[in-house]
């Protein structure tokens, strides 16, 4: 669980406690009014459990503070924006997520991104994307709507050709050698990356293995219009819009970028990956 998410949940719990005490109620009295177990009151107030919207509405009414309902619900919405579990998002498969990301991309002008172990979705070939989705469905035990998801991801790539869009993407060289798919599929994917280098609106930098580093990133991330950061971990997707978070990830991206190569040196790393695939 992210520190930001937990801190926000604790802050929400503190606000609930404040409302209760202002009403002159102890935990057991409030639990009785709400028809809940006292332990639920404790978990919510101590940030051990995430409240549902109905919980917050009932709480505000029970402590005679209906005016606080809007604030409580706004805090909950902020939590939900920050912390989106893949288990919940993938309930109906990958297609819906691709459609949602596509809508976000249409509203974004400039991307700065970094990936360490996988080619970014915007640059994936259909065959490579198919294997990524299959692995994800297996890991999360989610519905396999693979072909619909692949079509939606390819549709998302239309944004690469829209005027006024800029993509500044960093890729660790290791991602060129991670075989999530058959070798011929990976070879085609590397060719796809080579074809993107030199496009006016795409800056593709590759961080070589063994390059001196002044910063490391534990996970991939994307900065959207310098206003929000999305971070994908194995279990959750985080959406961070606090200024200090955006600034932090911006500094990390800048340091990673200082180790990246572009143009002909990047082409040489792609050629090295193709040679390794051909030898095996």
Structural summary, described in words:
The chain has two domains: 82 residues, Orthogonal Bundle (434 Repressor (Amino-terminal Domain)); 187 residues, Endonuclease, Chain A (2-Layer Sandwich). It is built from twelve helices and seven strands. It is elongated, with a radius of gyration of 23 Å. Strands 1-7-6-5-2-3-4 form a seven-stranded mixed β-sheet.
List the helices and strands and how they pair.
Elements: H1 3-22, H2 27-34, H3 38-45, H4 53-62, H5 69-82, E1 83-85, H6 86-89, H7 95-106, E2 110-115, H8 126-140, H9 146-156, E3 166-172, H10 183-196, E4 202-207, E5 221-224, E6 228-232, E7 236-240, H11 243-257, H12 263-279
Parallel strand pairs: 2-3, 3-4
Antiparallel strand pairs: 1-7, 2-5, 5-6, 6-7
Helix pairs in contact: 1-5, 2-3, 4-5, 7-9, 8-9, 10-12
CATH architecture of the largest domain: 2-Layer Sandwich
Number of helices: 12
Describe the global form.
elongated
Helix percentage = 40-55%
Query: How would you classify the quaternary structure?
Result: single chain
The separation of the N and C termini measures 40 Å
Q: What is the CATH third-level topology name of the largest domain?
A: Endonuclease, Chain A
Q: Number of domains in the coordinates?
A: 2
Quick overview of this protein structure:
By secondary structure, this protein is α/β, with parallel strands linked by helices. The chain folds into two domains: 3-84, 434 Repressor (Amino-terminal Domain) (Orthogonal Bundle), CATH 1.10.260.40; 93-279, Endonuclease, Chain A (2-Layer Sandwich), CATH 3.30.870. Helices cover 53% and strands 13% of the residues.
């Amino acid at each position: 669980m992210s520190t930001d998410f937990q801190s926000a949940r604790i802050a929400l719990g503190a606000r609930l406690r404040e409302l209760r005490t202002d009403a002159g109620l102890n935990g057991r009295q409030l639990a009785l009014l709400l028809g809940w177990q006292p332990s639920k009151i404790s978990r919510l107030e101590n940030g051990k459990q995430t409240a549902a919207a109905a919980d917050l509405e009932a709480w505000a009414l029970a402590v005679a503070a209906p005016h606080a309902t809007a604030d409580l619900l706004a805090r909950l919405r902020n939590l939900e924006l920050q912390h989106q579990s893949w288990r919940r998002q993938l309930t109906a498969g990958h297609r819906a997520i691709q459609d949602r990301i596509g809508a976000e991309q249409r509203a974004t002008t400039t991307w700065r991104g970094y990936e360490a172990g996988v080619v970014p979705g915007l640059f994936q070939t259909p065959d490579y994307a198919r294997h990524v989705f299959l692995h994800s469905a297996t890991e999360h035990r989610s519905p396999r709507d693979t072909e619909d998801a692949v079509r939606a991801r390819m549709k998302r790539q239309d944004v690469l050709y829209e005027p006024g869009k800029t993509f500044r993407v960093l890729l660790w060289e290791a991602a060129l050698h991670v075989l999530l798919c058959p070798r011929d599929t990976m070879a085609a994917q590397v060719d796809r990356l080579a074809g993107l280098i030199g496009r006016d609106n795409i800056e593709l930098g590759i961080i070589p293995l063994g390059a001196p580093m002044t910063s490391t990133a534990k996970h991939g991330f994307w900065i959207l219009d310098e206003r929000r950061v999305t971070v994908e971990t194995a279990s959750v997707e985080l959406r961070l819009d606090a200024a200090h978070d955006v600034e932090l990830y911006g500094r990390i991206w800048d340091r990673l970028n200082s180790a990246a190569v572009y143009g002909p040196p990047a082409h040489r790393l792609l050629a090295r990956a193709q040679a390794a695939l051909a030898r095996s």
